[in-house]
Amino acid sequence: MWPFLAGIALVAIFGMTLRAAVGTGPISDALSIMLNLLPVALEFSVAFIAVIVVQQDNLLGDRQDWLLRPIRSGDVMLAKLVFVIVAIHGPLLLVDILEVKLTGISFAQSLVPALSHQLVLFCCFTAPALIVGAVTRTALTALSFVVVLIIAFAALFTLGLAARVIPNWYVTSTSYSWVVQSATLLLYVIAITAVLHFQFRARREIAGRVLFVAATVAAVALLYGFPFRVAFAVQQRVDVAQGSEGRIALAPASALFKSGISAETNGSGRPVGGDVVGDRYFVSASSASFHSDQELSSLSDNATGIHKATLPILVDGLPANDLLVTDTAAVRIAAPDGTTLFSSDGPVCAHGRSGNYCLSPTFMARQRPVAADTTRTQLSLPLPTELYRRIENRTVSVTIDFTLTLLRPDGTASLHAVQDKKFVEGIGSCATRIDSEGDDVELVCLSAVRQPACLVVSLQDPHARLQNPPHIACRRDYAPFPLYVRDRGAVHRTGGELPFFDPNGLAHYPVGTSEIGQAQFVINNFVPQAHFKRRLVMPTMRLIDREHSS
Amino acid sequence: MIIQTDNLQKAFNKFEALRGLNMSVPEGSVFAVIGANGAGKTTLIKVLMNLIRPTAGSATVLGVSSLALSPRERSRIGYVSENLEMPGRLTVGQYISYLRPFYATWDRQFEQAVLQQLRLPMGRRINELSHGMRLKMALACALPFRPDLLVLDEPFSGLDQLIREEFMEQVLVHADEMTVLISSHELSEIEGSVTHVAYIEQGRLLFQQGMEELSARVREVRVTLNETATVRAGLPAHWLRVNAAGSVLSFVDIRYDQEQLAEQISTHLRRIDDVKVTPVSLSAIFTTLARAAQNGTLPT
């Protein structure tokens, strides 16, 4: 087994070396694929070895010599557990610590992301593999068991979706996902402990398998069925409001709104308004004309299915410099007589050429005084195309119940816009450069710490006191502790682009080509301080009053 | 009693492998469990060793419920079976070294003596050993800690005569230090050393007896008549394997009593010329009983 263990360590070292060598530099598609595949290979190798470790002293059956020796089955279980922790996760932890250390943070700080990654790896791969090994006889049987489980789950999930038993949105797709993930991990750890204890002590083969399958089903049910109100309540306990959100109120602006025919997504189905776009997440909800190349190409792919209405709204009582973002929204459109024409608790979904995509009503607001204490922003309201066409001439009332988060500034950092490299507190080791097209400034960061919930980034020329429109980008993660469930490793690469030049000549930037040499890439961090609910009511409106744009 | 079962039952789905077995193994005995294939011998041993759980009833081993056998009891039990799975990737020497620390009573000199006598290749992997070598290996792993109870489940299966003799030599040399429970078809190998016998048929214990008593109550009888011998109806049920050849009527009396035999012979047979009574080997006892059970003529 030692060659396998050495192989796993070598794969981890190879991945670390490759990522360190690339650093914040550009990555080709081929390299990107390899860097994405290496963690996957590592995860499955770890799971495979865990199965083999358990099956060295097979539990199942009645012919094993060790069953007749003065060996406590509990000791066998503990020995295997300690072995995988020390011999598998030990070297991986050291590699993680080293990789995190290379991003520039201290040794003490590097322990947290490294341990977190190993904890997630253990809970999601090693521990389940230990159980699968305990309820099967051979590696092949174990693989078959897992394949059958996956197929069964996929079939049930599809049926559940079709029967609308499973909702089309879940808490795990919101910023409160850490609550669900933590609960699921806890459930799984308890279940794993129970199954291992049950299997090793009682040696009941069928019961062990049933318990494992039941635990998996329960974990999946928890992931997709966790009540949002519970997650919201937990989050409110974590980020205890100080009262500054108390005066915040929403109201429709009196100006006409715009709606667009096209459905704007990033190809992966995530709303354009300030969401993470793979590694590049600088997208603005306030200036919808700025898109990445990927998003622009996706617009033509997803031409039907959803109309996105853009409505100006007012936010009263927003504290200075604070940022307000939407987490969830429940929409109801009613006729004047009260008949519900449309209602949705979650995103509006449609099918496009790129696949399924879903959009939620969303806005972001940062204090830009229109009147004293009032901020104007734009609400993006997605509606099914068919509905829009049916009711566009009708007077309707729109009521939206939002779950909102108020974020406060938590530090500012800046880098030179051109060819700078710096350690940014709260993010990681970052570098800037002009992209290959010469119209955007790229920021690439190697991050091992919890990133801020939201960033407001902009290009500024401090000498000329010029600034391009800021972009707001938010992660869907308000976790108060580092639980790196989604990130495949202790260090991950992130960043984005800010435009400074429009090759078509349509947009003109205050900080443009002439100023970019002395410009600064400014990053403002925001952390959550309060989570609350507000209702926006637009009592009468006609969709036909919108301006259509193609 | 070192082993005791009370109404022991084991069912595999609808198949009843053990049906209310009540058996007692005296301490210090060499106790043979005999029976046809599928009688339930191996199932019984596996239940005693807590490799499988009984459906009903109970068993105690070394004074402890078989379900509660702890490392303390297991350190006093040696087990040899033809189906034992040992870690094939380890060598003989490595596996013995691995086992040594688990037993406080492990005698290294004894270990060396056993290994020498069994002539096991220490550097060879277990999965490279022949069947006979594996059994000798299992015995080498079961003796050095001087167990109080040595359990042998079909230890001679597939072994040639030489290895059988080597095997039994090792067992018998130390048999007076422990209790031996052996299940086997190869009764000729153990006949000279067995002190007690239990006969199992279709999951039931048909009888359990000391070897002396068994030998005393089973006899082969040859009656020479002054006429052609025929097998008549109405003969005593405990006369098994009744056979007529010429003027000789032979049978195995499984409830031999000298006076009663004479009376029964004179009652059921005529023109008796001679009667010869001879002891029966354990193999013959087993064969007789097994055939009678199969034919449904075995008296209860």
Describe the structure.
The complex is a heterodimer of chains A (550) and B (300). By secondary structure, chain A is of the alpha+beta class. Chain A contains 10 helices and 20 strands. Chain A has helices at residues 2-22, 29-56, 73-102, 107-134, 139-162, 177-202, 205-225, 228-238, 293-301, 385-391, and strands spanning 249-252, 258-260, 306-316, 323-334, 340-344, 348-352, 355-359, 364-366, 369-371, 374-384, 395-416, 421-424, 428-434, 440-447, 454-461, 466-467, 471-474, 492-499, 520-542, 547-549. In chain A, strand 15 (454-461) and strand 16 (466-467) form a beta hairpin. The radius of gyration of chain A is 26 Å and the shape is globular. Mean pLDDT of chain A is 80; it is low at 255-303. With 300 residues, chain B is an alpha/beta fold. Helix content of chain B is 31%, strand content 29%. Chain B is built from 10 helices and 15 strands. In chain B, the strands form 3 sheets. A 6-stranded mixed sheet of chain B has the order 7-8-9-4-10-11, with helices on both faces. In chain B, strands 1, 2, 3, 5 and 6 form a 5-stranded antiparallel sheet that branches. The two termini of chain B are 25 Å apart. The mean pLDDT of chain B is 88.
Key descriptive features of the protein:
heterodimer, A: 550 residues, alpha+beta, 6-stranded mixed beta sheet, 10 helices, B: 300 residues, alpha/beta, 5-stranded antiparallel beta sheet, 31% helix, 29% strand, elongated
Helix content of chain B: 25-40%
Cα-based radius of gyration of chain A, to the nearest Å? 26 Å
Give unreliable regions of chain B as ranges. Answer: none
Largest sheet of chain A: 8 strands, antiparallel
Q: Give the overall average pLDDT of chain B.
A: 88
Q: Between the first and last Cα atoms of chain A, what is the distance in angstroms? A: 62 Å
Helices of chain A, by number, come to: 10
The backbone outline of chain B, from C-alpha atoms, is elongated
